[in-house]
Amino acid sequence: MSTSAKQTPLKPNPLEALSTELDDDMRAVNAMIIDRMDSPVKLIPQLATYLVAAGGKRIRPLLTLAATQMFSGDITRAYRLATAVEFIHSATLLHDDVVDESDQRRGKDAANLVFGNQASVLVGDFLFSRAFQLMTEDGSLEILRILSNASAIIAQGEVMQLTTANNLTTTMEEYEEVIKSKTAALFAAACEVGPVIAGAAPEKAEAMAKYGMYLGIAFQIADDVLDYMAERETLGKTIGDDFREGKMTAPVILALQEADNEERAFWERTMGNREYNSNDLKTAQDLFEKYDIYNRTLALADEYGEKAANALDTAVSDHPLKTILQNLISYTIRREL
Question: Domains along the chain?
Answer without folding.
Answer: 14-334 (1.10.600.10)
